[in-house]
Design goal:
The protein has 14 helices and 11 strands. It has 382 residues and is of the alpha/beta class. α5 runs antiparallel to α8 and α13 crosses α14.
């Protein structure tokens, strides 16, 4: 099973390819605190995370002469494994930050477990149920019987799609589940009519192609007034919140639609990452803000007054907190939230250690471990 997973991860990385953002010097500008080369992971080419990462890294290159290489991947594991192995240092991640920290979904296997991750900045962003206009989906209830996308290994997408269906009182049994190999393939699947809907960032470049295609685009709404709908949604995705947005394909300025909000991308690393470098990178995001903020409709959300606030998918890194305190953004409430999350992760990590010890003593087959772990996790952490 481990070999099969490893082959899948490697394949995802190869399919993603590499993006090199060229710099003028092999070393970063003296005094910047940044290394001469950094490697980040991100979602597929064409995703918001990839596009934003390219714009920000280009600004860092111009100002500090530090190069950034971006490794794109269409799966959560594909974005985490380079950071885990040291092939990358930072990731522009989504909900897999929370899943990995809490050892959920694809991170609940013995070769993963709770990852000691930290957030540098958390970009607030909208996420909706992107549907083709041709499908006739105008409300979430219209998804019944339709072709809904699923990306194997991408729980960050799948759990939100499931939650969006739950908002309308639907489950996977009420729709046709269509498997797609990656996030980018999901966008292309909408354009080609292979699927009718899937959870997707509302300003993703591929969706502009969908809007211009014969399929057209539709955004079902999530009214904040639908208390029961939000209650069902929060049972699966408690980190989402009601929002209103009027930017992106299929949306009209001044006529916002009620679409959920979450944090994506989050700039993430491991807790062990040097605090001075983390501090310098957060400072770099702040100091180059005017150089990249107009390159994408959502880049203004990287302003540290917004991206430096809780909540996020993991606790904030001490280096990031130091800079945010200096700028007057980190508050006592932020500190309270961070300490509470750190305390929780200690419990999760302790629960994992206990579960692994018990599973080893019992000679438990790998295929039975995840169910055992989730039960043990609930007993100790809830």
């Amino acid at each position: 099973m481990k070999k099969a997973k490893a082959r899948w991860v490697v394949l995802g990385l190869f399919l993603g390819g590499l993006l090199f953002v060229a710099g003028l010097s092999p070393a970063a500008e003296k005094g910047s605190g940044l290394p001469g080369m950094m490697t980040w992971t991100a979602f597929d080419v064409g995703s918001r995370g990839y596009v934003q990462g390219a714009a920000i890294s280009n600004a860092l290159t111009k100002k500090y002469a530090t190069k950034v290489r971006i490794l794109p991947s269409g799966t959560s594991v594909g974005r985490l494994i380079p950071i885990k192995t040291g092939a990358a240092t930072y990731g522009l991640l989504a909900d897999e930050t929370y899943f990995a920290a809490e050892a959920l979904y694809e991170f609940s296997f013995p070769n993963w477990g709770p990852q000691d991750l930290r957030v540098l900045l958390a970009h607030p962003a909208p996420i909706g149920m992107a549907a083709t206009a041709k499908s006739g989906i105008k409300t979430l209830k219209d998804c019944k019987g339709k072709k809904i996308g699923w990306i194997p290994g991408a729980s960050t997408n799948n759990v939100k799609t499931e939650a969006f269906l739950a908002f309308a009182g639907l489950t996977w049994k009420d729709v046709q589940r269509i498997d797609l190999p990656s996030y980018a393939a999901a966008g292309k699947g909408l354009i080609e009519g292979k699927i009718d809907a899937i959870s997707y960032g509302i300003t993703a470049p591929l969706l502009y192609e969908l809007e211009a295609s014969p399929q057209g685009i539709s955004w079902p709404e999530f009214p904040a007034s639908d208390v029961e709908g939000w209650k069902r949604l929060h049972q699966l995705t408690p980190w989402l919140s009601p929002g209103k947005y009027d930017i992106g394909p299929g949306l009209k300025k001044g006529q916002p639609k009620e679409i959920p909000s979450y944090t994506y991308p989050q700039l993430v690393c491991y807790a062990k990452q040097d605090a001075n470098e983390v501090y310098a990178l957060v400072k770099g995001f702040d100091e180059t803000f005017d150089m990249y903020k107009d390159a994408d409709p959502e880049l203004p959300e990287w302003a540290i007054a917004r991206s430096g606030r809780v909540p996020a998918g993991a606790p904030f890194h001490e280096g990031a907190i130091r800079y945010l305190k200096e700028k007057g953004i980190w508050t006592a409430q932020s500190d309270q939230w961070n300490r509470k999350f750190l305390d929780r992760l200690k419990k999760v990590q302790g629960a994992w250690k206990t579960a692994m010890q018990e599973a080893t003593a019992k000679g438990m087959p790998e295929k039975d471990f995840t169910e055992f772990w989730l039960k043990k996790r609930g007993e100790i952490t809830e």
